[in-house]
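Saturday, quiet lab. Running sequence design on the structure tokens for the scaffold JK sent over.
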């Protein structure tokens, strides 16, 4: 009869195989993450579990976050991946993805959302609120702005029957700030001209 291994024994064996026998070199949590990643994403292929493979269909939307949950019965996902019948590039390797698509993410910050949906605040007409939650990444850390967060505008008041423009900007230090169009105090004749006045 085959030996029944405990998690502690599997962890010890794993540490010996990779040459990091102590928790100073690799914490138990990190070792468990590596073991779990192998069991979920590689082990099925090593034991020829492809005999259990099947097509998986997921309903997508052009306006959602782009994050989709998989049922616990799904061990892993592999190529080919198609959207509307078209083959897509698929990888589960974060570094490989950004090596293949470096030009798509050129700034220090990546914003992903369905549009911030900015509008006049409900408690103050001198504030703006985001109608949709949006998130941004700084140095690998994700930050989220919730729906209906109000931010007071600063700078000149736009004259009645004129247009002004502001935009949110993530500064180099990671702070979200508001930038105003250069001539909001005088006002612009159209929305388009106001947007052109943004720095």
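Result came back. Writing it out in full:
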């Amino acid at each position: 009869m085959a030996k029944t291994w405990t998690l502690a024994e599997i962890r010890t064996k794993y540490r010996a195989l990779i040459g990091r026998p102590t928790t100073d070199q690799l914490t138990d949590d990190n070792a468990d993450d590596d073991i779990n990643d192998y069991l979920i994403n590689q082990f099925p292929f090593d034991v020829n579990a492809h005999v259990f493979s099947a097509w998986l269909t997921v309903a997508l939307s052009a306006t959602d976050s782009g994050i989709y949950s998989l049922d616990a019965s799904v061990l892993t996902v592999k190529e080919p991946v198609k959207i509307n019948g078209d083959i897509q590039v698929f990888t589960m390797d974060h570094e490989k993805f950004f090596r293949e698509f470096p030009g798509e993410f050129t700034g220090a910050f990546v914003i992903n959302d369905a549009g911030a949906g900015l509008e006049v605040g409900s408690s103050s007409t001198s504030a703006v609120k985001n109608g949709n939650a949006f998130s941004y990444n700084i140095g690998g850390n994700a930050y989220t702005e919730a729906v209906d967060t109000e931010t007071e505008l600063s700078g000149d008041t736009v004259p009645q029957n004129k247009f002004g423009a502001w935009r949110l900007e993530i500064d180099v230090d990671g702070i979200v700030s508001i930038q105003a169009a250069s001539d909001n105090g005088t006002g612009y004749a159209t929305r388009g001209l106001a947007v052109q006045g943004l720095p």
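Notes for JK: Strands lie at 81-83, 86-88, 109-113, 118-120, 127-130, 134-138, 141-145, 150-152, 166-170, 176-180. The first strand starts at residue 81 and ends at 83. Ask whether to fix the surface positions before the next round.
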